[in-house]
Design a protein that fits this description.
Layout (H helix, E strand, L loop, with lengths): L1 E2 L6 E9 L2 E8 L7 E10 L2 H8 L11 E9 L12 E5 L8 H4 L27 E5 L3 E3 L6 H4 L2 H12 L8 E5 L3 H12 L3 E5 L3 H9 L4 E3 L6 H8 L5 E6 L4 H9 L1 E9 L13 H7 L2 E4 L5 H12 L9 E6 L3 H8 L6 E5 L7
Helix pairs in contact: 4-5, 4-10
Bound molecules: zinc ion (ZN) (2 copies).
Length: about 350
């Protein structure tokens, strides 16, 4: 194993112990196994998953933090990654066992062991909300050294969106619809624009519609003021959009997404819909119109690689999505900020709290 010899002996990590309860524990800095690297965490995004645990989903104790940028401080002897000591990296904190049906089928983001927990009562989770963390070589992606930490940690949400957009087969000049202008909707807008599409955003909030326009949306529509489907048809000679991405809106919006799709087009259900509703669809509509309805969940190795490259090359500006930066000692306040729907990502900065 190679490592920096000025590593501290102990580190802090945030442990979710119950609804609304996070404690900072001091534990030894872990030693990587041969296939692992030790990452000094520099920035972590507070995603919906962490917010769910903060609100009370459990099981506890939970170690949150899966949107991670950091620096390699030690490398196990069997690591093959191109990332060397001192390199800026981002971590795809998603366990792949490599042995289950889905891993063997090449769908390792659906690995049945991705959320395995150790024995009840033992702390589990991605563990990025800490001064240091361990990651397997395949989970570590190098970033260009000039990427700010706060943007580098947003590789994971961007990777979920590169995968989603990739599933729709957008062609130059297509019309794309995105429902919802939260951070995920806005990232869809930016990526669809990069694929040469005209983008329509459907979003009830006037403030968010304005933000969507700033991020490149060509047209916006308020789905509470009239029919989103009629609006899309009117913009496409009555045909519908080639690709429709559902990021938010509820079951009626899912049904509208299907109706707003052109013959031969694709609907991607990116967002989850709560509590767990059924939606209705016209079977003959799908049959005659050959519409593809698909879902997307998480990121895979290729979409993560794409996102790390796009952030490294500064092809997508992630700065507008950083709403607040708080030190690890203030993680509680970070969650209170993250709960405000006007904020996009709240970033937690371990270590000394100094960015770059
Ligand atoms: Zn995330
Ligand atoms: Zn697996």
């Amino acid at each position: 194993m190679s490592q920096r010899n000025d590593l501290p002996k102990t580190m802090r990590r945030a442990v979710f112990t119950g609804p609304g309860q996070i404690t900072l524990e001091t534990v030894p800095v872990p030693v990587p196994a041969p296939d692992q690297m030790l990452i000094e965490v520099k920035a972590v995004g507070l995603c919906t998953m962490e917010q769910r645990f903060y609100k009370g989903s459990g099981p506890y104790p939970f170690l949150g933090g899966h949107e991670i940028a950091g620096v390699v401080r030690a490398r196990g002897s069997a690591v093959m990654s191109e990332a060397q000591l001192g390199d800026l990296v981002t971590v795809a904190q998603l366990t792949r066992c490599g042995e289950c049906y889905f891993c063997r089928r090449g769908l390792d983001h659906l690995c049945v062991h991705a959320d395995d927990q150790p024995a009840p009562g033992a702390a589990w989770g991605p563990g990025g909300l800490a001064d240091f963390m361990l990651a397997r070589g395949y989970e570590v992606y190098r970033l260009n050294p000039d990427v700010p930490y706060e943007e580098g940690c947003l590789t994971e949400p961007l990777a979920c969106c590169t995968r989603s957009v990739g599933r729709a087969g957008i062609r130059f000049g297509d019309t794309v619809v995105v429902t919802g202008a939260g951070i995920m909707g806005l990232l869809h807008v930016k990526l669809a624009k990069l694929r040469g599409a005209r983008v329509i955003v459907s979003e009830p909030s006037a403030a968010r519609r304005r933000v969507a326009e700033e991020h490149g949306a060509d047209l916006t529509v308020d789905p509470t003021a009239g029919s989103m489907v009629d609006f899309v048809r009117a913009q496409t000679d009555g045909r519908g959009a080639e690709a429709v991405f559902y990021t938010a809106g509820g079951p009626r919006t899912v049904e509208d997404c299907i109706k707003a799709t052109v013959k031969g087009g694709t609907v991607v259900l990116y967002g989850s819909t709560h509590p767990d509703p059924n939606v209705s669809l016209n079977a003959n509509g799908i049959h005659y119109d050959e519409i593809t309805i698909t879902g997307t969940y998480r990121q895979d190795r290729e979409s993560f690689r794409e996102a790390a490259r796009m952030i490294s090359l500064r092809e997508v500006d992630m700065r507008p999505f950083v709403s607040a930066v708080v030190p690890l000692s203030d993680v509680d306040r970070g969650f209170k900020l993250a709960a405000n729907p006007e904020n996009y990502r709240v970033i937690v900065v371990p270590g000394t709290g100094a960015g770059k």
